Prior knowledge:
The structure is a homodimer.
Chain A: H1 24-44, H2 50-57, H3 61-67, H4 71-94, H5 102-116, H6 118-125, H7 133-153, H8 163-177, H9 184-199
Chain A binds a DNA duplex through residues 20, 22-26, 29, 49-51, 59-63, 65-66, 69-71.
Amino acid sequence: MGMTSVNSSSGGTGGPGSAKPLRADAQRNRERILAAAEAVFAEKGPSASTEEVAARAGVAIGTVFKHFPTKQALLQAIMKGLLGRLDGEMAELAADDAPGEALFTFIDRMVEQAARKRTVVGLLAETGVDLQVASSVRMLREGIEALLVRSQEAGAVREDVRLDEVIALLTGICQGALQAGWDDDLRRRTLAIVFAGLRAPERH
Amino acid sequence: MGMTSVNSSSGGTGGPGSAKPLRADAQRNRERILAAAEAVFAEKGPSASTEEVAARAGVAIGTVFKHFPTKQALLQAIMKGLLGRLDGEMAELAADDAPGEALFTFIDRMVEQAARKRTVVGLLAETGVDLQVASSVRMLREGIEALLVRSQEAGAVREDVRLDEVIALLTGICQGALQAGWDDDLRRRTLAIVFAGLRAPERH
DNA sequence: CACTAAGATGAGTGGAAACTCAACTTTATA
DNA sequence: TATAAAGTTGAGTTTCCACTCATCTTAGTG
């Protein structure tokens, strides 16, 4: 679970193994920038300035904009990385033994992360997240759906719960988790209520 | 339920019926500004510009800043009004016949509002909302607590649910409700899950 | 109606942050 | 090692927005 590589063969608009193989220093800087950006945005949210990212990465602003032509692009790159990792984690959980609990575990982990990473949540709230990221989001969506279905088959989640509601709940709680005062205990208690709702048989 | 008056005897730092009784046109403008601000911020979130508010109110920017010395002050004034109205609604519900359902009704209404008013939620997410507004927030908190207790006494909500969790859930779902794609149906389904969780007896 | 203080006006100021580019530095290759 | 293409730099440029203030307008009073 250490260092999933966060490259993506630079900036082609879609080409697979596309154009140029980045010089060594450029590659290094790209990764530094990504790491710095993730840290900065995680702390201060997506409104943190690009200059701060540059400073933390130890490069000049120009370099940041060389690699990511707009702030949006940088944000999207981060998003893609986060979603990718999430996706991996999800696959792991899906392969696990406790099919019923997998969904719950995943939600718990994601919410826990969100509390520390304002980026994800900030981005979800922003209007234009589409484009490149869209495919990652779709992957994530499908992954969650798989977990949901498995949990339902295992009888751990009500049959009438649909993917949309799970995602709505997930994004909502993630957003809420940013609020001051969400400690581990509150998170556990709050999720317990939601989980109870997902498990509970319908009441007239 | 038409027009709850949104004045508050102008801008004293605390004095009760404090200083000057506002000229007639000033009073009119103040209300126009408040209404315009509520509309603008509801649509575009708290990052909308003050100039837009002024334009919509049909006054000059200077006038806005005459009445509300900072943008924060304007935001707070709106917040205060919203919270006040919410508080009234809550009192009404508390006096109602169905003690068990009052909490659920309130949550439902608040989330519905949130979907249309980015202000509330945007503000809750901002860091410095305290100060003047704090007392209104406390009132709201107490009101929710009353509803919760009544619901529990009526046996409609699990005994072990605490105020913190309800508020966490409420803010979370409100935040989430801003997302694109939250229509009435999704809201109903999502809240149904949460309500089931609040009602459900604990599972081992 | 005359007068004045409260209020309204809107061009202007300051600052913050995204983005550019001409000059300079480094990597990779012959 | 010489050279060119790739990469880096950071001082601008531009845009946007909160906030100010000298000047004009109007409500209220005798």
